[in-house]
Amino acid sequence: MTRPLLIAGAAIAALSLAACGQKTETKGAATPAEQAATPDANPAATIATPADEASAPVFVEKASASDLFEIEAAKLAQATSKNAEVKKFAADMVAAHTKSTAALKKAIADAGQTTLVVVTVLPADLQAKLDDLKKAANFDKAYMENQVDAHQSALNLMQRYAQDGDVPAIKAFAASTAPVVQQHFDHAKTLRDATK
Questions:
Q1: Stretch 42-57: mean pLDDT, rounded?
Q2: Domain boundaries in the chain?
Q3: Superfamily designation of domain 56-194
Q4: Were 67 and a residue from 58, 84, 101, 158 both cysteine, which residue would form a disulfide, CB within 3.0 to 4.6 Å?
Q5: Angle in degrees, 0-180, between the axes of helices 168-194 and 139-164, rounded to the nearest 10
Q6: Mean pLDDT of the chain
Q7: Residues near 179 by Cβ (< 8 Å), separated by ≥ 6?
Q8: What is the pTM of this model?
Q9: What percent of the chain has pLDDT over 90?
């Protein structure tokens, strides 16, 4: 009986000594701007960039469609919601995504990419989401759930293009926009969890 205990004790001692010899690195928390610049610091950016999303035309289409969807959904929320916090969030989204679209247009102009244009009509998939939202039994809950999903997708898009994009001025736009989208995402999650 003592022999198995001695073997187990020796194994534990060996593992303890091995663990003591290992070095651990600690780093301070990255700021949102650092997370956008180094996407592997943020789990959302660990998703590999689809090849087409590294191209400016695809990024501009997706980013501007996302902004347009956010604006249209927010206008619907302002007209439909009975919750003052949800209405305020919606008003903030109209302002923020209008500003984001203007910044994207400026990045396109600064890059000299005259063939790139922002989306002015919702793609079919986003229009379907907006139509579903109009029919939601619990509008506030559905809107906030929708906002969490939409901002997660937008955050992934911004971070991936900031890392792998092909046009420097538009990459800079994506990097500077990602922290703002992260704030919207966090706020949307808080409101979603508080909305009944």
A1: 62
A2: 56-194
A3: Ferritin, core subunit, four-helix bundle (1.20.1260.10)
A4: 101
A5: 150
A6: 82
A7: 31, 32, 33, 35, 36
A8: 0.74
A9: 71
Q: What is the 3-state secondary structure (H, E, C) of the chain?
A: CHHHHHHHHHHHHHHHHHHHCCCCCCCCCCCHHHHHHCHHHCHHHHCCCCHHHHCHHHHHHHHHHHHHHHHHHHHHHHHHCCCHHHHHHHHHHHHHHHHHHHHHHHHHHHCCCCCCCCCCCCCHHHHHHHHHHHCCCCHHHHHHHHHHHHHHHHHHHHHHHHHHCCCHHHHHHHHHHHHHHHHHHHHHHHHHHHCC
Cβ(81)–Cβ(87) below 8 Å: yes
Q: What is the pLDDT of residues 146-182, one digit of tens each?
A: 999 999 999 999 999 999 999 999 999 999 999 999 9
Residue 194 · residue 157 · CB < 8 Å: no
108 contact partners, CB below 8 Å, separation of at least 6:
60, 116, 117, 118, 169, 170
